[in-house]
Amino acid sequence: MFKRFWSWLRFPAFLLILCIASYGLLASALGFYWDDWPMVWFAHTLGPAGFTQVFSSDRPFLAGIYVITTALFQTSPLPWQIFGLVTRWLTALAVYWTVQKIWPERRMAAAWVAVLFAVFPGFKQQPISVVYSNGFILLASYILSLGCMLAAVRQPQRRWLWTVLGVLTFALCTFSTEYYVGLDLIRPILLWLVLREYIPTWKERAKSAFFHWLPYLGAMLAFLIWRVFVFEFPTYQPELIDAAAASPVAAAGGLLYRVVQDVFTSSWLVWALPFRFPALEDFANVSGAAFWLITTASLLLTLLAVLRFLPEESAEPHKRVAWSHQAMIVGGLAMLFAGWPFWITNLPLGVQFPWDRFSLAFMLGSCIFAVGLLEWLLRKHLQRVVLLSLVVAMAVGSNFETANSYRREWITQKDFFWQLSWRAPALKPNTLLVTQKMPLIYYSDNSLTAPLNWLYAPDNHTNTLPYFLAFTEVRLGAAIPALEKGLPVVQEYRSARFESSTDQALVYFYSPPGCLRLLSPSRDDDLPILPREVRKALKISHLNQVIPDPASPASPPAHIFGAEPEHGWCYYYQKADLARQTGNWEQVVSLGEEAFSKGFEPAEPSEYMLFVEGYARAGRWQPAADMAVKTDQLAHSLQSPLCRLLSRLEAKTAPQGADAQALAGAREQIECPQ
Hints:
Helix content: 55-70%
Strand content: under 5%
Protein name: Glycosyltransferase RgtA/B/C/D-like domain-containing protein
Number of helices: 27
Structural class: mainly alpha
Distance between the termini: 94 Å
Organism: Levilinea saccharolytica
Strand order of the largest sheet: 3-2-6-7
Shape: elongated
Keywords: Membrane, Transmembrane, Transmembrane helix
């Protein structure tokens, strides 16, 4: 009994280990990204039932899944990361079961397809766990619907049971997401292959295939009617149809290019890119050493597991070649069919964020094609095992590297919000926080608006957004009509809405390792570190949107952001900048001297200018002059801003005697114009 149980369990256990190596080792160090943030904010603000409003405009059937999962996993990152890993693993098991329904005599090939699916390196958004744990539930449902359809053929005595299960799982997926609408054209191909074993004549086989396909075809037609005529393309538009109407030849040429490019990307590029040779410098840092350790361990594990538990299947050479041809045809057609929802809407498949998300539809075909191709190219069992194990190992290493990049972004994003909370203990309602863009890959301004509202309006439980964070490179000319005073600003995200004006804007700049800066139009317009677009936006920045001394200072939610980090240079800088806003110059000096006494120094020399001003305004011109000279020595590009700062301070404080001499000495060393 135990041997039978272990025989059944060992392959799922092996798949789970590969998923943990790929996606689980850094799970506790990952957070929320991209559309995860709005989803958990909606769960916090409206509760799980609120998702019926959130998805009412485009994917109402998806709401039910979010209602269940957000009620279970709520708003902490780690449970979602674990759940995302589990759903990826379960989807790979669904692939294993379904591929066996296509080719029951090719158990080892089905195992390889499932393994490649589990570690598929072309999809790099696994750490976006809220969105894609739910996404993999849908993909697993779709793949199970294929398996149920084929099980109805192989077990005719239970045909109706399998058909009902298949149509239900198909409908669950398809009415929730349109990603797999094109891929579904593979159904009659799979039915034809399986029915060849039972029906020799092609006419009878075609008739039987049609009747097995008919329930799914009916469900698909119902979806298309609902999607096209009821919802009428609420998000992405059928741009290919419009392009074909305007210029059929150009549209056909562009489509052909896209088809070839996307099939090449999903069938070859996604597997080739992870390959690289180790270099000595890889072992000089923890991340590089960890990558090669995990890659090597995955290679050895895969070799051991396959050679020990998946013995070579006996098959005549011509049958093996015939199967490899079948697999390449099925996999190739699956990739060709998968792309149509994206080609019609002109959405590009890529290997980088955010366009790699469309590879979800290509994954199944890519994995089947890869296994079939290697079966055809390599006739010896050991050769195939070694090469496939190497592919798996490099994919695992690539997935670990991807997770590590998300880990670093989570650190940067947390740092931003901690610094913001230190600098702005509260913000007036309807504040528009503006910058050109952020030094982040896996976040949009919509993403960051969610934690901004959670930080400053934690008790809001309505669809009204009291705050909005906007990137001018995205919103200028749209939600933000222009960088002028007195203009209305309106932005919607699903069921949430923000309304304000440019008179309530606050412009900031954040470029680590430099500290976050809330910008003043009169003080910061000559800072050389500011990008041109940020400098243009300065005229609508209002520091009075910051409430310096609220009754309840804002603090990032601990169950998401963790405990407040140790106070380093940027903490003292933010608190000193807040003191500058209130005119408390002694506190500016005190905070600076405390930071210096602890050995903290700025990574960005222009941050010293705050303390130059603090010392001068507190009547301590000698340390102000010394710090101004030091700043100029560290970054001579700050010469002009320093000279203008000294001139403004001279006009405000009118130094006399020794103070005037200190100022004159600083001017001379900095070479300020007379």
